[in-house]
Write a structure and sequence with these properties.
By secondary structure, the chain is an alpha/beta fold. It contains nine helices and twelve strands. The chain is elongated and about 75 Å long.
């Protein structure tokens, strides 16, 4: 814990020094009289804006800091990636004698300009892409008899309170209702750690309460659904007519059992709520009924055996940004889409989520609504 508390800030500071140095080198080529002190002050403010946003300040100031830090985090990521790649290219060019040493200033000017233009383009694309919702569909043939087909709409990772999430809520609810679902399942991370970050809770409640599903709206908690504002989150869901399943199940129209799991590692804790042994819960369900589980994190899918027919999950965001999606894909057996490990094992559908976390961008992924038809 102490080691992480020291090394992580130190690594972040070192990376910011690297980016800041490269930016200032480019800026001095473009504007030789630029003030180093002014540049440093602006850069340091941007770099620490994320930490400043957690200070208990008036709502408007905290919102401004969160807005700045959300965009800066994405800019930081692509500055780091692009400066590192171009440094490597320049190094190889020098080693194979395609670029003279010392590197001409004009090369540095073009390199810095290219990094800024590409980063700006990626951020603009990411913001626009995050403003759109994509519909995906899955047809799932159940092993156990299902009296008639059932339409489940799966959404997750709304992250209410994060930048841009409330703005997208109206189109999300409209998109869900247009699919005419029998059930709506929300696979966790409804909130963004802190209920007080939601700018207009009453509007959010009214919108979520207007979701239309014949057998209701059900949810499980994710790792961001907890902490000091947990009680207010619980009341919010009740006001929305969303049934939170806390390691418990309901029988839907005497056709299937729907089980919602608590998250295994909620940020800030979940009070007295604790994730229990899934096997004990499932053992109490009629074995002739199909069992559908909502479990936020697909890392848990191996906890379930042949008694479970379908697992619905979210959490991964499909990486949200390139190249993070490559890392996420390598980390999970099922990071996105439809998956079944082997014949007889549960079927799994992982959604990339309907919102964004930390940064209001989607690059290499989409905000989505999933329609799953059980047959």
């Amino acid at each position: 814990m102490v080691f992480g508390a020291i090394t992580i800030p130190a690594a972040y500071a070192a990376l910011n020094y690297y980016i800041g140095k490269r930016l200032f080198q480019w800026l001095r080529l473009l504007l030789p009289s630029v003030s180093g002190i002014l540049f440093t002050c602006i850069y340091v403010f941007l770099a620490i804006s994320l930490f400043l946003s957690f200070i208990p300040l008036p709502f408007i100031l905290r919102s401004i800091l969160r807005f700045i830090s959300a965009y800066w985090t994405g800019v930081f990521l692509y500055f780091l990636l692009l400066f590192a790649v171009t440094d490597l290219v320049l190094l190889i060019g020098v080693l194979i004698k395609m670029i003279p040493r010392p590197i001409p200033q004009i090369v540095g000017l073009y390199r810095g300009s290219a990094v800024l233009i590409i980063t700006a383009g990626l951020i603009c694309y990411g913001v626009i892409n995050a403003g759109h919702l994509k519909n995906v569909t899955y047809d799932v043939k159940m092993e156990k008899a299902l009296q008639s087909e059932m339409r489940i709409v799966l959404i997750s990772d709304l992250h209410l309170g994060e930048i841009g999430t409330e703005k997208r809520l109206e189109s999300l609810v409209k998109g869900v209702n247009e699919l005419n679902p029998d059930i709506v399942c929300i696979a966790g991370d409804i909130f963004g750690d802190d209920y007080t970050r939601i700018s207009d809770p009453n509007r959010a409640i009214a919108l979520l309460k207007s979701i239309e599903a014949e057998y209701g709206v059900y949810a499980c908690f994710g790792n961001h659904d907890g902490g000091r504002t947990l009680d207010r989150m619980l009341v919010f869901l009740e006001d929305c007519n969303i049934r939170l399943l806390k390691d418990e199940y309901v029988i839907i129209d005497e056709r299937l059992a729907l089980l919602g799991r608590l998250d295994s590692s909620p940020i800030g804790g979940s009070g007295d709520l604790r994730r229990s042994d899934a096997a004990k819960i499932i053992a109490s369900i009629d074995k002739n009924q199909p069992v559908v589980v909502i479990d936020h994190n697909p890392a848990h899918i191996n906890e379930y055996g042949k008694d479970v027919d379908l697992i619905l999950a979210g959490h991964t965001h499909k990486g949200q940004l390139f190249p993070i999606n490559l890392l996420i894909s390598a980390m999970y057996d099922a990071d996105y889409g439809y998956y079944q490990k082997e014949t007889g094992s549960p079927r799994v559908v992982v959604t990339q989520g309907a919102g964004t976390w930390l940064m209001p961008f989607r690059i290499g992924s989409n905000n989505e609504i999933a329609l799953i038809t059980l047959r």
